[in-house]
Amino acid sequence: MANKEALRALQQRLAERLNMVRQQAPVRNFLAVEIAGSGFLLPLDQVGEIFPLTAIQAVPHCQGWFLGVANLRGQLHGVADLAAYLGLPGRTAPRQAAEVSARDAGRLIAFNTSLQMNAALWIDRLMGLRNPQTLQPAEPSDADAARPHFIGATWRDDQSRNWYELNLAALVADEQFLKIDV
Hints:
By secondary structure, the protein is α+β, with helices and mostly antiparallel strands.
């Protein structure tokens, strides 16, 4: 008899928790990455798989920021160097994994299949997950006016590091990003 009452109480608590979760606004989480020393927040619902840096086949007559194509799980993905695309300083071409340790080689972040773009971004480091509730909006600066439309809000974490929200859906719709030929 006590077991039935305990089970009933547990079911009641679970039902109450589920109702609370349904009533709360969904929390938007981010994957934090570092690209050329800058921190970017990628919405988790726009990110696909994370791959170790693999062989990238160069494609002739392409923009300098378009590194080529890579075979990721049997599908060809175009690989973009976001740092070069944005004109961020201090970055060299990716070195093949045989030249450096896998940890230092960087990663490829594939776009979510819902974006209908077989593309990946080359990033330097994964920095973990970030919840916007742990971040504060950063003070606007003069550079904010010159940002492309696919870079959203600037956030500041508790270590005073700035993070730039990168809307991958807006990036794949950007005319310049879609034009890889020279």
